[in-house]
Structures are given as structure tokens and as C-alpha cells.
Amino acid sequence: TRSGIDLGAHLILEKNLMLESMPDRVNRGLTNEEMDHYRQGFTDGAESRRPILAFVRSIPVAGEPAEVVNIMDAGRKWIEARGSDLPALFVSVEPGTMTDEDREYIRGWKNVTEVAVGGGHLVTEDSPDEIGLAIDKWFRETAASAGVS
Fold first, then answer.
1. How far, rounded to the nearest angstrom, does the alpha carbon of residue 80 sit from its chain's CA centroid?
2. Considering only Cβ atoms within 10 Å of each terminal Cβ, which end of the chain, N or C, has fewer?
3. Which residue has the higher pLDDT, 70 or 41?
4. What is the DSSP-derived secondary structure letter of residue 24?
């Protein structure tokens, strides 16, 4: 807080910063029509944006919030325990926002298929077709190798 003001809450609830800054996180930019679509549901003032604030505050930073870190750690341990029987599709986004350490961790899984797509923070806006085609191809190949039709 600064001067008794919760700056993060002010920026998200009052200024709608998470939505209004979206074009800065999409490499191709967003049209006015697309932005109007994203704004739907968040136009009734500050309270309509409270879920966005809750989401932002749940993103782990320096081990907090601990309950979210614990859930993420448990998920990672579950994946590691499953070993090679768990097929995974890794959509590697270039340049993306993932660290090299995280990329190498996923590449170390035994049954991972990697596909590279271009994009930034909101990759589904930058490469929606490439992601959809990659998921379709991976699912079909994974189902076929498992004898599922």
C-alpha cells in the first residue's frame, strides 16, 4: 500500500488494468472489437473485476501464497511419479514468457511431445490455429498409440 491505498487493487478494480493492458501482451495486437468482447462481464464497476484481482493475487511469487505453491508442488510430484506412462503435449512458445529452466524441466519428461509456436504472454491470441492443430494431431497420435479410436 502507498499512502493507505492498495495500488494493485486500484489498478485492477478501478482502472481495469488487466484487461486494458491486454494488447501489450499480444504480439499481433487486439482489435477494438476483440477488446470489447474481453471487456464483457467486467463493465459493471470495480466489483465485477474482483475475480481478476483474486486471480492475480493467487499467482505465486517468492513462495506465496503458500497454498497455491503447495498445490503446484503436489501436481509436479504427481507428474514425476507417473513417469513415462503419462503422455503430455508441451506447447513451447517463442519467445513466450517461460524460463529456460522450466522448458528444460518439461523436456525432461519421458513421454512429452513438443511443438513450437510463436507468441507472447497470451499465446492463444497469437497462435490459436497452430495450437488447435497441434492439440488435434497430438490427441489423434496419442489415442492411436493407445488403441483408442
1. 21
2. C
3. 70
4. G
126 touches 118 (CB < 8 A): yes
Element (H, E) at 125: helix 123-126
113 DSSP β-pair partners: 89
Q: List Cβ neighbours of 86 (8 Å cut-off, separation of 6 or more).
A: 79, 109, 111
Residues in the chain: 149
Question: Could you tell me if 91 and 69 are in contact, meaning their C-beta atoms sit under 8 angstroms apart?
Answer: no
pLDDT for 76 equals 87
SS3 113: strand
110 or 30: whose pLDDT is higher? 30
Q: What percent of the chain has pLDDT over 70?
A: 95
Cell triple for residue 125? 491470441
- If one counts every other C-beta atom within 10 angstroms of the C-beta of residue 22, the result is 18
CA distances from 93 to 4, 52, 99, 116 (A): 39, 24, 11, 6
Q: Which three cell numbers stand for residue 47?
A: 466489483
| Element holding 132 (H helix, E strand) | helix 128-145
Q: What CA dihedral angle connects 137, 138, 144 and 147, to 10 degrees? A: -150
